[in-house]
Amino acid sequence: MGTNGKDEGVWHTAAALTQQMSAIVEEWALEKKLGTIVHDNASNIKNIGRSLGGDDMPCDGHTLQLCINNGLKAHANIGRIISCGRRLAGHFKRSVVATKALTLK
Questions:
Q1: CB–CB of 48/14 below 8 Å?
Q2: End-to-end CA distance of the chain
Q3: DSSP 55
Q4: Distance between CA atoms of 40 and 46, rounded to whole angstroms?
Q5: In DSSP terms, which residues pair with 55 in a beta bridge?
Q6: Which phi and psi (to 5°) does residue 38 adopt?
Q7: Is residue 51 scored above 70 in pLDDT?
């Protein structure tokens, strides 16, 4: 895949991705083994499974992560709590003295 500015958007079109996936399926002799393509819900990926003769299915883990992220963004207090927790964990990760003092309490 090219990454220069001129070709960058072309590689992510549904047609280009379908062509690339078709070549891989053929190269690996998967034509009769293709069942379902699991994807990240991107609109350019959704129809590739059907166009290759299989089914498509959104990744449950990715979908769940999107829901969690949206929920966290919706509540500013949760974001602040997570930020404080990260700073606190980072402090103890970087400081042997602080970690030892914490374990002695």
A1: yes
A2: 56
A3: E
A4: 9
A5: 36
A6: -90, 135
A7: yes
